[in-house]
Design goal:
transferase, GH13_cat_dom, 27 strands, alpha/beta, about 600 residues, O16G_dom_2, Immunoglobulin-like, about 35% helix
């Protein structure tokens, strides 16, 4: 790259170092995506020129991005509202009460949008005026580690780019994927039952464009390198606004090649590697997280060779926890946990139970028995939930996700509703926050929010059942009523989270081993700190009955004093039996921090 003669020798040296690193790390990734060397050379220079003034002084990878202290809350910008102020301001005021509980906030898409509660972005560089402005986002980013959504597979049909496409105007006219409806597209993996191609009237006549998710969410064409430039501009902008995490939404669908599944293609993986390398050069503290709601083996592929996502959503965990608590047994959770490799160095699992979407069913493929899946669907419907479908390549439909608030999903077991609602709910969250990885709590789990039937009726979309908007005054009244589910859950969840944050054995990369007590109603695993100075034996009663654990079965050694972090119970004799009440969880440790 040419350097100005007015540039100081020190700057020239830094520039040269970055350019050499760029050629070594980034250019080969571009060559994997674009075969034309002229395109690669042009794109390399364009990207470097765009970003060179923003590169970090160090190009070294930061392997200390997180510790046991990290806890994320997931929320829409308007999950808590009051008529007197912008929702982002209200959210900020509410989150201030959680500053000793959580460390990060994932604000779900906060840009102007036309559908799908934000996931159909009209303008990536603006904040939706109905929830606030950039000042509101940055105020939250100053107090918490901010996760920003990059909805990079598709954009709104109301966007400037798509309007340009319809008019035949650059640059947007080249940013979308046209296809012939007569072509065989049966191999394409679909997450929805809507048509894959959308008919569009343009200045050049009728065209058909690719739309994986809906007719309002038009897929971007990454075979055009200019689209990559646009995405890098957005990433840079979000980092400048304070983002510490960039969430790559629906990233598995990124690259299309007719005659394939158009899912997890090599070019998609190469682009994620590219975004990781670029992000690391801009700010080594930033982490990329991939959202791929797919079977477990496919999901794990997004770690790459520790050169793709820093974090991947642990999508199999929610339905497996749900099934385990419905059935009152640990079989499938144990099988899954034993099969899960430790996250690679510099990477971690992103753990959650509830999310803004539903409880994905594809991640259970190969993990749950058919009759258990049927029971799961039946009971969730009995507890007020809905089932969303997708179209398979053979044209048939199959359940894709369960739409229900996680709190209501915990109403009962396969035998029906019972009196252990809150205890079962707390058990589910405690399992999630103890498993290897970084825990994330959907705000409606912290607030014990029930199914939003009014929201469902208003939008007609199943996912609205789990996207309630709290009135701030109503919420405060609930939290001040010590007998309300909201107050009970918030207080106990906060207590457990604070305990968790202090324990080195809960570092996202601390050792994890599955334990095998004879009692199937118990789900047990051992966490050991990176420096091996702390062990925590996580014992969880998945049933509505009192259970006993013979402590000798989990190999406690007598030279250490042991006690339960959650109940405070001291273990005097390791040959004793440990009693767990229905849905009780225990964190038995040799050392408390």
């Amino acid at each position: 790259m040419p350097i100005s003669k007015q540039t100081s020798p020190e700057k020239q040296h830094q520039h040269s170092k970055h350019w050499q690193h760029f050629l070594f790390r980034v250019k080969p990734l571009l060559e994997k995506v674009y075969k034309d060397q002229k395109i690669v050379d042009r794109l390399s220079e364009q990207i470097f020129s765009l970003l060179q003034e923003h590169f970090s002084d160090s190009v070294a990878e930061n392997l200390d991005k997180w510790s046991q202290n990290e806890v994320i809350v997931i929320t829409y910008g308007d999950s808590i509202c009051t008529p007197e102020e912008a929702p982002l301001v209200t959210l900020n005021r509410f989150l201030e009460n959680l500053q000793d509980t959580i460390t990060g906030v994932h604000i779900l898409p906060f840009c102007p949008y036309s559908s799908d509660d934000g996931f159909s972005v009209i303008d990536y560089l603006q904040v939706n005026s109905e929830i606030g402005d950039w000042q509101g986002v940055e105020a939250i980013a100053q107090k918490f580690d901010l996760m920003a959504d990059l909805v990079l597979n598709h954009i709104s049909s109301k966007s400037v780019w798509f309007e340009q496409f319809k008019q035949g105007i650059k640059p947007g006219c080249d940013y979308f994927i046209e296809a012939d409806p007569q072509e065989d597209l049966s191999e394409v993996v679909r997450p929805r039952s809507t048509p894959l191609l959308v008919e569009v009237d343009t200045a050049q006549g009728t065209k058909y464009v690719w739309a994986t998710f809906s007719e309002d969410q038009i897929d971007l064409n990454y075979s055009n390198p200019d689209v990559v430039i646009e995405v890098l501009k957005i990433i840079l902008f979000y980092l400048q606004k304070g983002a510490k995490y960039i969430r790559l939404d629906a990233v598995g669908f990124l690259w299309k090649s007719i005659g394939t599944s158009c899912m997890h293609l090599p070019q998609t993986h190469a682009l994620i590697k590219l975004f990781r390398e670029i992000t690391q050069m801009l700010n080594p503290d930033v982490a990329l997280i991939t959202e791929t709601n797919v079977p477990n083996k496919e999901n794990l592929s997004y770690f790459g060779n520790r050169d793709e996502a820093h974090l991947i959503y642990n999508f199999s965990l929610p339905p497996l926890i749900l099934n385990a608590l419905l059935q009152g047994k640990s079989d499938h959770l144990k099988t899954w946990m034993m099969s899960m490799p430790p996250a690679p160095t510099g990477c971690a699992y992103f753990n959650f139970a509830a999310s803004h979407d539903g409880i994905g069913l594809r991640p259970t493929e190969g993990l749950l028995l058919e009759d258990e899946c049927n029971t799961l669907l039946k009971m969730m419907q009995e507890f007020g939930g809905k089932i969303s479908m997708r179209t398979k390549p053979d044209g048939t439909e199959s359940p894709y996700e369960i739409n229900i608030s996680w709190f209501d999903a915990m109403k009962g077991t396969a035998q029906g509703e019972d009196r252990w609602h809150i205890e079962r709910f707390l058990c589910s969250q405690t399992i999630m926050m103890a498993v290897e990885g970084i825990p994330a709590f959907y705000i409606h789990s912290l607030l014990a929010t029930s199914n939003d039937y009014a929201g469902l009726a208003k939008t007609g979309r199943n996912r609205s059942i789990n996207r309630y908007k709290w009135d701030y005054t109503e919420l405060k009244n609930k939290l001040n009523d010590f007998n309300s589910p909201q107050a009970i859950v918030m207080e106990e969840m906060s207590r457990r989270i604070k305990i968790r944050r202090r324990q080195p054995a809960f570092h996202p990369n601390a050792t994890q081993y599955t334990l095998h007590p004879m009692n199937k109603a118990l789900f047990a695993f051992w966490r050991q700190s990176i420096y091996r100075d702390q062990s925590i034996f996580c014992i969880n009663n998945l049933s509505d009955r009192t259970q006993e654990l013979l402590l000798s079965d989990i190999n406690l050694i007598c030279i250490d004093p042991w006690h339960d972090l959650l109940s405070g119970k001291v273990i005097e004799d390791i040959s004793d039996r440990f009693i767990l009440e229905p849905y009780q969880c225990a964190w038995i440790t040799n050392q408390e921090f």
